[in-house]
């Protein structure tokens, strides 16, 4: 289990670095051009590494723990913004970082040994259908959709990708996972998550976007994992797990509103010494 926790933490760090890279990129390009930006490409590579690490974490940890740790990448985002972008940290941010870390420790302790439960009948079909619906939703909302709507779609995309990965991972190792029909849902939902999240970052404030995505990608997969995929909580730890989840999500929401997140939205310096405004919607 220790190795699984380490893999989840490493995934969170990779996602944090990726988020900083992508947030900066969305201020230097707009529309679909942002997908070709070197920072976004590098961020997507890190996302891929983080996703593989999260699959390793799912060997012994339930979805609600893995997703909570992944969402805690906001801790890394705030710290990196302070170090790299010289952002300001509030006392509230420091307290929130402490709360999130303690909550994650409690969640890790609350996780029972996860059985390799096969998904119920129809799980694959419905997961693929939902992933394709999310892709369609992002396409329809891409041009004129509200940033929070796009963030919600992005969070749901990441959630469905995690749920599909958990369902596929139940039957074997990583190779078995990528050879299943559920890989269609993983790729489609993942694409919806990336495009929805990037567009939301481009059109809206990093704080509100990150908060929306964090809440969705912790709660939705966690509930589905417990009710549908056989994830378990250690006996006597149900209440601490619920409290820790609420505190972890609340801490992530506070960190999402930190000035450190807004640092990525700063206007980009121009060669003449002035500043270029952040690009508007395409």
From TrEMBL:
This protein's record includes keyword Transmembrane: yes
Keyword Glycosyltransferase: no
Positions of transmembrane segments: 6-26, 38-58, 64-85, 92-111, 123-142, 149-166, 178-198, 205-230, 236-256
SUPFAM superfamilies tied to this protein: Multidrug resistance efflux transporter EmrE (SSF103481)
Keywords in alphabetical order: Membrane, Transmembrane, Transmembrane helix
Gene3D superfamilies reported for this sequence: 1.10.3730.20
PANTHER family recorded: CONSERVED INTEGRAL MEMBRANE ALANINE VALINE AND LEUCINE RICH PROTEIN-RELATED
Name by which UniProt lists this protein: Integral membrane protein
């Amino acid at each position: 289990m220790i190795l699984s926790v380490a893999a989840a933490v490493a995934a969170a760090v990779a996602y944090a670095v990726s988020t900083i890279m992508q947030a900066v990129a969305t201020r230097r390009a707009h529309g679909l051009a942002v997908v070709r930006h070197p920072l976004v490409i590098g961020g997507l590579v890190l996302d891929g590494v983080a996703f593989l690490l999260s699959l390793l974490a799912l060997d012994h940890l339930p979805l609600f723990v893995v997703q909570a740790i992944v969402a805690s990448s906001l801790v890394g985002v705030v710290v990196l913004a302070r170090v790299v972008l010289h952002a300001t940290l509030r006392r509230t941010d420091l307290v929130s970082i402490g709360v999130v870390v303690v909550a994650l420790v409690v969640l890790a302790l609350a996780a029972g040994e996860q059985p390799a439960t096969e998904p119920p009948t129809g799980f694959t079909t419905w997961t693929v259908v939902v992933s394709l619906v999310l892709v369609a939703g992002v396409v329809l909302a891409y041009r004129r959709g509200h940033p929070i709507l796009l963030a919600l779609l992005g969070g749901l995309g990441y959630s469905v990708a995690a749920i599909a990965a958990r369902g596929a991972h139940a039957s074997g190792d990583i190779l078995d996972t990528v050879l299943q029909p559920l890989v269609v849902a993983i790729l489609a939902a993942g694409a919806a998550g990336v495009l929805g999240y990037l567009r939301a970052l481009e059109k809206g404030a990093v704080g509100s976007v990150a908060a929306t995505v964090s809440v969705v990608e912790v709660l939705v997969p966690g509930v589905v994992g417990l009710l549908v995929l056989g994830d378990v909580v250690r006996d006597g730890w149900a209440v601490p797990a619920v409290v820790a989840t609420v505190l972890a999500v609340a801490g992530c929401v506070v960190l999402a509103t930190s000035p450190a997140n807004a640092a990525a939205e700063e206007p980009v310096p121009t060669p003449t010494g002035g500043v270029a405004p952040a690009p508007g919607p395409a």
